[in-house]
Every structure is written in C-alpha cells, then in structure tokens.
Specification:
heterodimer, A: about 800 residues, four-stranded mixed β-sheet, disordered C terminus, B: alpha/beta, Rossmann fold, six-stranded mixed β-sheet, four-stranded antiparallel β-sheet, globular
Chain lengths: ~800, ~290
C-alpha cells in the first residue's frame, strides 16, 4: 500500500469521524448558516423596531418659563416635516408666514411681477447624513421628530435673573464705567442663571423622567424683528432617549432657523446664493461595487479569519488530544502506518474542515447581504452593489491561512493529554492571531512594506483589497508566498512534534523533555530542527529591526545607524546561536565551527577574498543585460547610501566588513550549516545556507551574487572544518568592495594605476587575473577534504548505548 | 528459519530493497520469509535498551539490555511489578518506540529498519485499547483492514470470517461508542487478528476486566497459541501466568533477572508458589513492616 493511498485512507476516515460529531457540525455548518442571517437580519429588524419605537414615543421637555414653553410649542407645531394636526391646517397660528404651506399660499396670492418665493434647494444645515452605526436612529430622527410634551418648571422666576443682574451692576459700578458694568453684569448674571438652570435640570434628566431641558435667553418676540435668541438644550448624552429627543428637537430648531433666515432674506431682498459665496460639494468616483466592497471589507475579513481559525480548533483538538484521551492513538500506531502519514491525514482534515467552515461563513455572509439588503443598512441608503464576484478569490486567499492555522493548532494540541488541556493551549494561539488581524483591520492600512509579510494581518488586508477590487499581483504573490512559507514551517514543526515519543505516549516521558534544558542530551552539533528554528527566528527579527532602524529619526542616515547595526549583528548573529547552543547543550566550538584550519584552507581563503570583489561589480553590470534594476530603485539605492560618504572609512569597514563578516559567518556557516550538514548532506546543506544567505541580503538584484558568494563560503567552511577562512573571504570581499568605491579609499589609486576605467569598472586585465585567482581558490577548496567528524553527533557518556542520530 | 541462514550481506540488501519498495509504494509481500511452523523462532530481542530523558541530563534507563526469544505456538509471559519496563519492551517490539540500543528481530527482520513490515506481522492488544466511538464496528474494522493493505474484497471476506468466529455479527453496524465492554473487547481482538498475524503482543490484556471478559480473553489466548501463534504477554497477574505461560521472563527495574519455565524458576528460587518465586527473585522477600 503506497504512502499516498494510506494518507488518503486516513484523512477520509478522520473526516467521517469528525463530521459525525455533533459539535463539529454545529460549529462548522449550523453557526454560519443560522448565525449571520439571524444576527444581521435580527439586528436589522431590532434596529428598525427600536427606531419606530423611538419615533412613536412621546418625550418630555422642560422649559424655565411659561413664555418659553408657549414659544417652543409654537415652533414644534409649525415644524415643516411634522404631520400637521387637522385643526392646525385650517387656522394658521404662525405670525411669520414662512411654513411651506404658507409659502405656497403666498405664492398663489402674490401679485404679478413680485419675486417668486425661495425654493428649498438644500437645507442650510446638513441633516446628519453620512453618519453610521449606532448614530443611525438618532440621525434619522432629525428629519422626523417625535411628539413632545412641554412642562414648565419654575424653580427660578425670571424676576430673580433681573434682580441678580441689577445687584451685580450695582456692585460693579464703583470700578468701571456704567456701560462696562452693565455689560459685565449681564454676562455674569447670564452665566450664573444658566448654570443654576442646568443644575436644576440635572436631577430629572439624570433620573430619566425628563429627556430634554431647554433654556431660552433673549426675547423670542424680537425674532421677527431681526433679534437673536440663544436656545440651549440640556441633555444626558449617555441616555439614548435623551439623545434622540435632543436630535429631534435640534432638527426642529434647525428648520426654524432656516425659515427665519429665509424670511429675513426675502425681506432684505437677498438672493439665497448670497449666503453661499462658495458652493462646496464632494463627489466620489467610487463605483457602487467599490462602495459595497469597502463596506464589506471593514468587518468581513476579521469575521472570516476568526471563523477559519475557530473552524480548525475543534478538529485539531479532537484528532490529537481527543484521540489520545480515548486511547485510540496507540491502536492506530500499531497499524503499519508511519507517523508522518498520520499527521498528514489529520492535517488534511483539519485544514479541510477549517476551509469548509470559512467557505460556508463566506457564503452565508454573501447570501445574507444579497437577500437581506444588509448593504443598505451598512451604507445608510447609499447605492451599493456587493461584489459577490470577489468572494471566490477571498476564499482562495484563505487557503494558506487555513493551512497555517491547521498546522499551528495541530502542533499546539499535540502536547495536550486531554481535551481540556488542549483548549487551554488554543486560547493563546487565538489571541496571538487576533492582534495582527486587528492591525490589518485598522482603516487606512495598505498592503505594503512589512505588512506584506506580517502573518494574518497581510491576509486581512489582502481580503479587504480583494473586496474593493484592487489587485496588485506583486503584493498578492508576497502575501501568498510568505503565508505559505509560515504554513510550511508550521507543518514541519507539527510533524516533528507529533512524531516525538513523548508526545505520542504520555507515559514515556513528559513533553517537558522536548523543551527543558536539563532533559537535553549534550551534542557536538545542533539538530537540523534547532538550526532551522534559529534561522526562522533571526530572519524576520533582522528584517524588522533593520527596517525600524532605517526609518527611526534617531538612526536614519546618521552615524548612530552604524553603531546600532554593529550591536544588531553581534546580538542576532552571534548572541542568538550561542544562546541556542548553550540552551540545547551543544558544544559551541563544534557547533559554530570556530576551530582552526589548515594552511591550504587559508590559501584558498586568500585567493577568494582577494578576487571576488573584482568579479562582483562586473557580474552586476553583466546582469543588467538580462535583469534590469528599475531606475527608481537604483536611484533610491543611491540616495540611501549617499550619506555613507560622510562617514569615516574605518568605521564603515569595521561595521560592514569586519563585524558583518564575522557575525554572518558564525551564524550561516557556523550554526546553521553545522545543524543542516548531518541531516540533509553536504551539497543540500551548502545550497540551502547559500540561498538563505542570498535572501537575507534582501535585495532581488543582488540575490544571484550573494547566493553565489554563499556557495563559495559554504564550500570553504565545510571543507576546511572552520569558519575562520570563510570569515577572511567575507571580510576581504566586503572591505575591498567598500574601499574600492570610496575616494578616501582605493578608488583614486585604482583609477591612477589603470586597474579601473572611467566608470570605476575593473579593466579586462584585472578581471582576468581575478577570475584566475577565484578558480585557484575554488580548486584549493575542492582539494581540501572535509575533516572526519570525531565521534558521534550526540555525546553519550555511557558506553554500550548506540547513538540514535544517523551518521 | 530460512532467513537466519542467509549471509549477512544478502540480508541487508534484501531489507534495503524492501525499504526502497516501501518508498515507491510497492506493497510488501505478506509473510515473505516468515516461517510459522510450530517451534520456529518468532521474536528475538538483543540487549534491548530504552532510555528516557531525565531531569538530571543523564537519561533514565527504563529497559536495560533485555534479551529473550519467543517461539511459534508458545505463550511467553513477561512478569514484573509496575514500572519494571514491561510496556516499554512490548512497545519497542511492536515498533511503537524506537530502541535506544539493541535490536528486535521478528524472525530476521529488524523492527527499527522495517517498522511497517514488522507491524504487519504483529497483532497488538491492550486491555484499554480504545475504539473510534463514532465509527461502527464494521467501519472500524474496514479502516484498519485498509491500513493493513487489504483490498475491499479481501477485507470483506476476512472481517466476515472474524465476525463469525468472534460473534460480532449482531452489532457490526452499531457505533463503537454504544458497545458493552465485552463487545468492545471482541471488536479489538478482531482488529488485532485482521492481518492474520503470526505474533500477538498483549500488554496486560486482562487489566481491569470483569470475570466474564477475563474469561473471554484467556480463552482467546489459549486458542491462538494452539493455532500456532507466538504470544508475548505482559502481566502482573500471577495466576494467569501460572495457567497460561510456557515460559516466563522476570523483569525488574528494566533488567531481565530470570527466565525459564515455571519449574526452572521454582528450582532457581527454591520456592513453590509463583508469588513467592517472584518476590524471592526480585529480592523483596523480606517483611514489609518490620516488627
């Protein structure tokens, strides 16, 4: 039976098993199918119900005087949008003939030749349009005010205000002019009066028996004559009823204001446009599809991510911890099945369930929106089209995410002895996933820079961009590639962990043995897994730190950048491997290959170190013929490195040649190469390390060059058994490349003695010589024999125990 | 015992070929070299060692240079107190754990080199082996039959025959979760016998079973031995050992401290009752509470 047909058998059985579990069906199928329609339509209906409830309600207003109450009543009753009561239609009670009905009547009775009445084009005050969410019913109520009941509250008779003002005026008269005292007394008394009323209203407002308090300052009767009145509306903003009553009242007052302005303009014979010297309007080019996509993109990606992860949680726990809890894992392991086939089968099912879950959620969201007109609610009546065609693409983008979380969750749950324990482990994963997801959901986050490779966040943003129909192929490739990389790493870790005997059989040693130092057996070289782990840790760390350094104003194009770089090199490329070696009980000397080398190796190093710096620029120039660097990138590179010209040469050489050379060799040709060499063989190890070295330099057009250099360095380090010769090559290469490009270095001398041409390019003679020297160096490398490893990779103290590590 | 007389080099080449075949997906030939005649050597362990990581950094030896042999048609009992290393030994023999040192041969096949081929030859059973509660008995058996490399027709035929013999037919379509302990045990026995293995490895097969289930199990062991299977069982139930086992290996603290037939062990210890033999050999025949 082939491996693939066994995996096939396993995943099909696991799928049947997991689908028969009611909990899976509930989480995977029922939740999305019922939840969204129920939630969305339910909340829509609840909102509408609440809205109509709010409109049907009668609200309490308190006013400070009989006169204010009467005036307010009149304003409310003559409001243009209010459904007029039958008795009011007949006998107009308005003194100023400016209700719409009155305007119409006036138009009919207007003598010929008189100016036409003003047409209501647009309200002077925008009526809360464009607001969203919770403000919805409140905004709508502006255009449709509810019923109000006005109660007069006579805590402070108006005479009190006049008395107060008179007393203040008397008091102030001594120190200033009469007019000044008059004005100051007015302001002071007004403030005291107002605050007294606010304090007075606070009681019933906070108790909720009253919804709005109104303070009217000034003579309402003077309005028709051109006077001004201050109307203050006191409310409790934390009470929804108070807010709604206030919004409605403000709408009424706004319209009243509008009517008064119109009446005054008509009286003064002013055109409406006079009040609007500037006509301002914003016009959006967004198609209805894009508006819909943007609305969808605000929340749907987050829901999808959560649902993709939640979909994977249950099967991941059930197929690992659950299987162990039920005692079936041992049964399964005695069948002729390899662990890797088991984990592959389980992994397929977890990913599949997670994707089915995500797909059903997506379909349900799409269906709910399509059927239920949810878009209308979200966009508040704007014309939108939900871009349903984006949904399959979104689902496709979720595949690597599901793969990644399937593997992460399987790895995490493998440790658990029981279902409950596994659930505890899953929580931190969930939280860890939510943080970048929320970063991705922040408005204005674009798919660029570090976000391209930030796990989870990049998928969130990609999903959002897919919804608004923005397809940047390069970005998509980055997102998918990086997520696939993380997914692959997670799968590898999961497979590695699941195969551990301590994980498979709880009684054959605690899982602590996998992590705790005291359980580790001393080794001469690191395991391949720990080498990959260190590589996987240092890579993104280096990427983010260097980027942060480059953008921070403290370091950007300043000499401090070099100091910081120096520290980063030491910390990441030397500190991390040494710490890893110490923690995992690996002998540092053999792990980092810091032993001595033969004279032949030093000869090879000298040949390579003295020649490669000549060949590198020639190669880059040749590369231009088939792989052009975009001119803007070239320019950016020049700008980015121009500042280095002002930095002393010795400092640059110290950091970028000596420190970089030593540290990168310790890391790449030391720890990582030592770890990979026994596991995947010399050729593959050199290739992998060289490629990692190339990618690490983070420059697409130098990738071939740096990887090629990495091949030479790897060969030399492996054959010589020491990193020091490759350190020499690295330091010489970097150092000579830098000094050859500096006018305070070798540049003038090279030009003078005719080694380089006018462009600073090496002349053919020098190139030939360097080529020969490189060949000699490589030949010497091949002539070296890789030193036989002394003893086993594992250091076993007791005799008679066969080492488990493959030779 | 054809395999044993093969020159070493040839044997290596053979196992390398079968490993290559396994990689390419060539189905392993069933029992290609296994001679299952009565009295043939079936299991042989050579100085088997298993160490587990310990907090001291010096690994703890759960099994320490254990060597013994089991022949076709015999019931071999591994006897020892809790934590003596019985389960670990059986797991290494069945290919569940990788020996730290030493070797396990199933006839001439090294378990470490060819775990999948060896697992094909072994029926492994414990008292608390779990079943997939959401699969029916029939689905459960068919699943394992597929894993053992049978095609559909073979599986149907084999499962039908086993169901008949173990009286599973009444509950074949029932979910495993709904079975009684006895039914569950019979299902598990059927699972262990699916591939018609010449070797049965039973880890404390009667632990925690009631009288009825216990009888089923003991009867099963006896009939299987009579049918010519090599049976290796671990237990600390002395009466079972006395009743069933032809030969006994005494394990204590990871070491095989004595081995032989019951009579040999009696002679060795000078005691008559097996419990006294056991205590004498383990070296714990002093009173627990000194007056």
């Amino acid at each position: 039976m082939s491996r693939y047909s066994r995996i096939n058998t396993i995943w099909r059985k696991e799928l049947i098993d997991i689908l028969r579990d009611r909990r899976t069906i509930f989480a995977m199928v029922l939740v999305p199918i019922i939840l969204y329609p129920a939630l969305m339509l339910g909340s829509l209906q609840a909102l509408e119900a609440q809205h109509s409830q709010f409109l049907a309600d009668r609200y309490e207003i308190i006013v400070p005087s009989e006169a204010a109450g009467k005036w307010l009543r009149r304003v409310l009753d003559t409001d243009a949008v209010r459904r007029p009561l039958p008795e009011e239609v007949e006998g107009g009670t308005l003194s100023e003939s400016d209700s719409p009905q009155d305007v119409a009547r006036a138009a009919q009775t207007r003598p010929a030749g008189a100016e036409p009445p003003l047409r209501r084009e647009a309200p002077l005050i925008e009526e809360g349009r464009g607001t969203r969410g919770a403000a919805g019913p409140r905004a709508a109520v502006r255009g449709a005010p509810p019923e109000y009941r006005i109660t007069v509250r006579e805590s402070y008779p108006h005479a009190l205000f006049h008395g107060l003002r008179a007393a203040l005026r008397e008091g102030l008269r001594g120190g200033m002019s009469d007019a000044g005292a008059d004005e100051a007394a007015g302001v002071l008394a007004g403030t005291i009066w107002r605050n007294a009323w606010i304090a007075d209203y606070a009681g019933p407002l906070l108790a909720g028996t009253v919804h709005v308090g109104v303070i009217v300052e000034g003579d309402a009767a003077a309005l028709s004559g051109g006077g001004n009145v201050a109307v203050r509306v006191v409310m409790d903003q934390t009470e929804i009823r108070s807010s709604i009553a206030t919004e409605g009242l403000l709408g009424v007052l706004d319209r009243m204001n509008e009517r008064l302005v119109e009446a005054r303009m008509r009286r003064a014979n002013i055109e409406r446009s006079y009040l609007h010297p500037l006509h301002v309007e914003s016009l959006s080019v967004a198609t209805p599809e894009k508006v819909g996509g943007s609305v969808l993109g605000q929340i749907v990606p987050l829901i999808l991510i959560i649902m993709t992860i939640t979909g994977a949680i249950y099967p991941a726990i059930d197929l690992t911890a659950g299987e162990r809890e039920r005692g079936t894992l041992e049964t399964l392991m005695v069948a002729p099945v390899a662990t890797v086939e088991l984990i592959a089968g389980k992994f397929i099912v977890v990913t599949m369930v997670s994707l089915i879950s995500a797909g059903l959620n997506l379909a349900s969201i799409g269906g709910t929106i399509w059927l239920g007109g949810l878009g209308k609610l979200l966009t508040r009546g704007q014309e939108v089209v939900i871009p349903l065609s984006a949904l399959p693409w979104v689902l496709l983008a979720l595949v690597p995410l599901a793969v990644m979380f399937g593997a992460v969750l399987l790895a995490v749950c493998s440790f658990a002895r029981s279902f409950k324990e596994a659930q505890n482990y899953v929580m931190p994963v969930m939280v860890a996933a939510m943080i970048p997801a929320v970063v991705g959901i922040l408005p204005g986050t674009r798919l660029e820079g570090p976000l391209l490779v930030m796990p989870v966040a990049n998928i969130v943003v990609l999903t959002r961009e897919l919804f608004v129909g923005r397809f940047d192929p390069t970005a998509i490739v980055w997102v998918i590639a990086s997520t696939s990389l993380y997914a692959g790493a997670a799968v590898a870790v999961a497979a590695k962990l699941f195969g551990q005997e301590a994980v498979l059989f709880a009684d054959s040693g605690s899982v602590r043995t996998i992590f705790q130092r005291r359980y580790f057996t001393p080794r001469r070289v690191p395991t391949a897994a720990s080498a990959m782990l260190v590589l996987g840790l240092v890579f993104p760390l280096n990427f983010f730190i260097q980027r942060a350094l480059g953008e921070s104003p403290l370091f950007h194009q300043r000499v401090e950048y070099l100091y910081a770089l120096w520290a980063v090199f030491l910390l990441l490329f030397v500190g991390v491997p040494i710490f890893a070696a110490k923690y995992m009980r690996v002998t540092e000397r053999t792990a980092l290959r810091v032993g001595g080398a033969s004279p032949l190796a030093w000869g090879a190093a000298l040949c390579l170190g003295l020649s490669t710096w000549v060949l590198a620029p020639a190669w880059l120039a040749y590369q231009q013929s088939f792989m052009q660097i975009p001119p803007d990138q070239l320019h950016a590179l020049e700008v980015a490195t121009a500042w280095l010209q002002d930095i002393p040469l010795w400092l640059i050489v110290l950091v970028l040649a000596v420190t970089a050379g030593v540290c990168e060799e310790v890391f790449f040709r030391g720890y990582v190469l030592s770890g990979l060499r026994p596991a995947i063989g010399p050729v593959a190890a050199i290739l992998v390390v060289a490629l990692a070295f190339g990618v690490y330099h983070n420059s697409a057009h130098r990738l071939i060059l740096t990887s090629g250099l990495g091949l030479m360095l790897g060969l030399l380090a492996l054959r010589s058994g020491s990193i020091w010769p490759s350190v020499l090559v690295h330091v010489l290469h970097n150092g000579l490349t830098i000094t050859a490009s500096r006018s305070d270095g070798l540049k003038p001398w090279l030009a003078q003695s005719g080694w380089t041409d006018a462009d600073g390019m090496p002349v053919p003679g020098l190139l030939m010589a360097a080529g020969v020297l490189t060949m000699v160096g490589l030949g010497l490398c091949l002539a070296l024999r890789e030193p036989a490893r002394v003893g086993e990779d594992r250091i076993v103290a007791t005799a008679g125990v066969r080492s488990a590590s493959p030779a | 015992m054809r395999g044993r007389v093969l020159p070493i080099r040839l044997r290596r080449a053979e196992s390398a070929r079968s490993r290559r075949d396994a990689r390419r997906g060539v189905p392993p030939t069933r029992n290609p070299t296994l001679d299952t005649r009565h009295g043939c050597l079936m299991i042989r362990t050579e100085k088997l060692v298993k160490t587990f990581p310990a907090p001291t950094g010096e690994p703890k030896r759960a099994v320490n240079e254990v060597s013994f042999e089991v022949r076709a048609g015999e019931v071999y009992g591994l006897l020892g107190p809790n934590g003596a290393g019985k389960t670990t030994t059986l797991r290494m023999i069945s290919g569940l754990l990788r020996p730290t040192a030493g070797r396990v041969f199933i006839q001439d096949r090294d378990v470490t080199d060819e775990p999948e081929q060896v697992k094909q030859q072994i029926g492994y059973l414990t008292a608390n082996t779990g079943l997939y509660v959401r699969l029916s008995v029939s689905e459960f058996l068919h699943y394992f039959a597929t894993l053992y490399g049978m095609d559909r027709a073979q599986a149907r035929q084999r499962i039908g025959a086993l169901a008949e013999r173990l009286r599973l037919t009444d509950f074949m379509e029932l979910r495993c979760g709904a079975l009684s302990t006895g039914q569950r045990q019979r299902t598990n026995i059927a699972r262990a016998l699916l591939a018609d293995p010449p070797i049965l490895v039973l880890d404390e097969p009667t632990l925690g079973l009631d009288v009825l289930s216990n009888r089923i199990m003991l009867e099963f062991i006896r009939t299987q031995a009579e049918a010519g299977r090599a049976i290796l069982l671990s237990t600390h139930a002395l009466d079972e050992i006395e009743a069933m086992c032809r030969r006994i290996g005494l394990i204590h603290n990871g070491r095989m401290i004595a081995e032989g037939t019951l009579d040999e062990l009696r002679r060795l210890s000078g005691r008559e009752r097996l419990s006294d033999v056991f205590l004498e050999l383990v070296g714990a025949h002093e009173p627990v509470f000194a007056d």
